[in-house]
Amino acid sequence: MMKSAHWVRNLGELIRRTSTDLPADVELSIRKALHNEKRGSHAAWILSTILQNIILSRKKNVPLCQDTGTLIFYFSVPVGFDTNALAACTREAVADATQKGFLRQNTIDAITGESFSTNIAPSSPVLCFQQGARKTVDVRLVMKGGGSENVSIQYSLPDENLRAGRDIEGVRKCILDAIWKAQGNGCAPGILGICVGGDRSSGYWHAKEQFLRKLGDKSEVKILAKLEENIMKDARKLGIGPMGIGGQSTLLGVKIGAISRLPASYFVTISYMCWALRRRGVLLGPEGGVQRWLY
Amino acid sequence: MKTLQYPFNETILKSLQIGEEVVVNGRLYTGRDRVHKYIAQGGLIHVDIKNSAIFHCGPLVVKNGDKWNVLALGPTTSLRHESYMPIIIEKYKIKLILGKGGMGEITRNACRQYGCVYLQLPGGAAAFLAEKVKKVNGVYFLKEFGTTEAMWDFMVEDLHAIVAIDYRGRSIFKKVQISSHKKLKQLISE
Prior knowledge:
The structure holds 2 protein chains of 2 kinds.
Chain A: H1 4-20, H2 24-36, H3 42-60, E1 70-77, H4 83-99, E2 126-131, E3 137-144, H5 146-150, E4 153-156, H6 168-182, E5 190-196, H7 200-209, H8 222-238, E6 251-258, E7 267-273, E8 278-284, E9 290-294
Parallel strand pairs in A: 1-2, 5-6
Antiparallel strand pairs in A: 1-3, 3-8, 4-7, 5-7, 8-9
Helix pairs in contact in A: 1-4, 2-3, 6-8
Chain B: E1 2-5, H1 10-15, E2 21-31, H2 33-40, E3 53-56, E4 60-64, E5 67-72, H3 85-92, E6 96-99, H4 105-114, E7 117-120, H5 126-130, E8 133-140, H6 142-149, E9 151-165, H7 172-189
Parallel strand pairs in B: 1-2, 2-3, 3-6, 6-7
Antiparallel strand pairs in B: 2-9, 4-5, 7-9, 8-9
Helix pairs in contact in B: 3-4
């Protein structure tokens, strides 16, 4: 039986950090984006306000964005670990964090429209458990706001309108079309998590898993790494800019993964993440003590 | 830099050009999905919002004793309110809309027809923007819609924004949309 207080406290700390303190790789990419914009431009004004906000939320210990989003927890646990107890501790930590104001009351009953005051509801938070080889519990949390989720999109190839076939060039066309359709509505400059293949649900799941990658890395698959690089260049050329107000900084990153598909299906799934990619992780020991913070 | 303050000066509003940076001071009412739907469908509100400013926003507010504490506040995607906006602009003579991402043709036309200006704020900069709220005057529909979707009456100070749709219905977003579409076509046919 696990001592729950330890776990609840440290999972709560993970939520606090994720909500108030943007990871270094994301902050760095925003600094780089600002550097590339013309001084005195609207784009530069928006990016510098965003940077001031990142520093302020960290200092004041408040959420950096009011939309604290869908909470997606990825757990990797040792063999034989009690995941039911871990799920209960996580829910308790979420309710605590909501009460303390690190999370907004952000969960609505889809039919009655009523708000759940603790953010604990069916499918909230999202918990994903898998078994790992290590003796520690690896927990990663991604918070994804609704504005960015709304502009995420899935294509089924071939697509006649885009003249996109079932090949890498077809995938490229879908991605560019998605960036154009999103304009500034997902809080550009965004980060794209993309999945080629899968079915309709695994496509989105795998696309979102790409947000666990650091912005500086590239795909280990050569052809995808090349595509990631090209999309970044093309996104600049589109000139959509921060919040869709014009400028070069349309995207901060593109992360593409691929999974198998059926002969009949060829999905390209694009999950849009706002500039506020809130992602943190922690390794917890057998008693729930912090061994190491990730990211 | 021009300052916009409730009650709004019509001459200043008329003089604003898209792309111009402005400062907003004074009273703002927040409203998002549920408030817009409710008002547009003829629901009654117990406060006079005539000639005022509507801020597309769902803040993170907590209560400490009797006092409301605004921890995080930022614009939500304005486009979701596109179908309700003209009705509200016309009925309440709304002069200023604050949000993010811009609005579509229907609102653009309503801005031109009834005289209203849309301001763009940086999305997600919620800790920064929360500092601009100097006072919570009150809150409406708290019980019905909850803290996130309620209509808040805030006093703000030194809130900077960019004019994105002007009094004549010109839109910065429309320009970007058209130019980026041209570029998209080129990139796709390469």
